[in-house]
């Protein structure tokens, strides 16, 4: 089938597109190739997406007219919406970028799906929506209405917007809350990237909350596999949903939410230790206070994902970090000891 992947030059978008192409789908990959980080890395990801089944369109999802024209011309069967302005800390200084991309852009995707018969919209959300919640593991069946960053708030808004389109127009939508994604071809603003580079160059790394973080680190291949499987399972109304006791993760409309996480929180200091083991070098650490917008711990309840989609992320950090380090040293030309 013909599938639109927004954010196809991104970290998760490129990996997801690769899987969809391998499964025989026709993929139109959309990205605006903005300069939030190194554009050459995005272009290198795109260069790996070869074959007659792939076409790239350079387009900003916040461009109303261009998005409407794309949907009208292409008649996509399904849409995987991964384009977004990412990053918790960047949202503290550049809030308008998040409204333009994550809110306006998502409205344009929803409108395109609504008006052009898209069978299923799958879109990226984030564990950041859980914000001030401390009831672990995080469950889609409990409320997530206290985000601690504009990034998290914009992604929670995406979920609510999707629900409204599911309810009003019977558009099947599935939101996927990603938990701390890492792996080869990652974003340079992510911790694994900066930690690895600084350790290799003998520079200290900034460790927030003095290292007392725990994260449900999830390998990018596991995320991409979960996205592809969710795309293949069209959201349906929950026949047991009750308006008197509403379940936030389902609906009487064709709407679903899932967590995609490794279901195994790892202490940040252990994560750094694994990087050190892979590099054969010790890190110099600047232990700093908790950053605004950060949460001390994340932990995904993935029972629904396993039951409905039939997939359980399971790559241990010892394997995933080793693959990242091998890719990083090869891509950037760092010698290995």
Strand order of the largest sheet: 3-2-1-4-5-6-11
Structural class: alpha/beta
Number of E-state strands: 13
Low-confidence stretches: none
Q: How many helical stretches?
A: 10
Mean pLDDT: 96
For the termini, the CA-CA separation is: 46 Å
**What is the percentage of strand-forming residues?**
15-25%
Characterize the biggest β-sheet. Answer: 7 strands, parallel
Shape field: globular
> C-alpha Rg, in Å?
19 Å
Helix fraction, binned, reads: 25-40%
Topology order in helix (H) and strand (E) letters: EHEHEHEHEHEEHEEEHEEHEHH
Describe this structure in words.
The strands form 4 sheets. The chain has a 7-stranded parallel beta sheet, sandwiched between helices. It has helices spanning about 10-20, 40-45, 65-75, 95-115, 150-170, 190-200, 220-230, 270-280, 305-310, 315-330, and strands at about 1-5, 25-30, 55-60, 80, 120-125, 175-180, 180, 205, 215, 220, 255-260, 265, 285. It is built from 10 helices and 13 strands. Helix 4 (about 95-115) links the parallel strand 4 (about 80) and strand 5. About 45% of the residues are buried. It has about 325 residues and is of the alpha/beta class. The chain is globular, with a radius of gyration of 19 Å. The model has no long low-confidence stretch (mean pLDDT about 95). Helix 1 packs across helix 7 and helix 8 (about 270-280) crosses helix 10 (about 315-330).
């Amino acid at each position: 089938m013909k599938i639109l992947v927004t954010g196809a030059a991104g970290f998760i978008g490129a990996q997801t597109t690769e899987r969809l192409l391998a499964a025989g789908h026709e993929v139109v990959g959309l990205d605006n190739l903005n300069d939030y980080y190194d554009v050459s890395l995005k272009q290198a990801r795109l260069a790996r997406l070869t074959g007659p089944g792939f076409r790239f369109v350079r387009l900003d999802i916040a461009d109303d007219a261009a998005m409407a024209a794309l949907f009208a011309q292409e008649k996509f069967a399904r849409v995987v919406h991964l384009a977004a302005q990412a990053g918790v800390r960047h949202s503290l200084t550049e809030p308008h970028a998040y409204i333009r991309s994550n809110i306006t852009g998502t409205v344009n995707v929803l409108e395109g799906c609504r008006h052009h018969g898209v069978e299923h919209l799958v879109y990226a959300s984030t564990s950041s929506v859980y914000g001030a919640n401390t009831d672990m593991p995080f469950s889609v069946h409990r409320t997530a209405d206290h985000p601690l960053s504009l990034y998290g708030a914009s992604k929670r808004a995406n979920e609510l917007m999707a629900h409204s389109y599911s309810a009003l127009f019977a558009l099947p939508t599935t939101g996927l809350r990603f938990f701390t994604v890492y792996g080869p071809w990652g974003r340079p603003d992510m911790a694994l990237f900066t930690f690895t580079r600084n350790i290799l160059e003998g520079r200290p790394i900034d460790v927030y909350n003095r290292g007392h973080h725990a994260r449900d680190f999830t390998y990018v291949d596991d995320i991409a596999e979960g996205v592809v499987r969710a795309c293949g399972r069209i959201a349906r109304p929950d026949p047991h949903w009750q308006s008197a006791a509403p379940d936030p993760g389902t609906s009487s409309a064709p709407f679903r939410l899932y967590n995609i996480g490794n279901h195994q929180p790892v202490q940040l200091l252990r994560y750094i230790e694994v990087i050190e083991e892979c590099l054969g070098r010790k890190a110099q650490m600047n232990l700093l206070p908790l950053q605004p917008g950060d949460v001390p711990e994340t932990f995904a309840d993935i029972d629904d994902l396993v039951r409905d989609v039939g997939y359980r992320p399971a790559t241990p950090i010892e394997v995933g970090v080793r693959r990242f380090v091998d890719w990083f040293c090869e891509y950037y030309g760092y010698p290995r000891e």
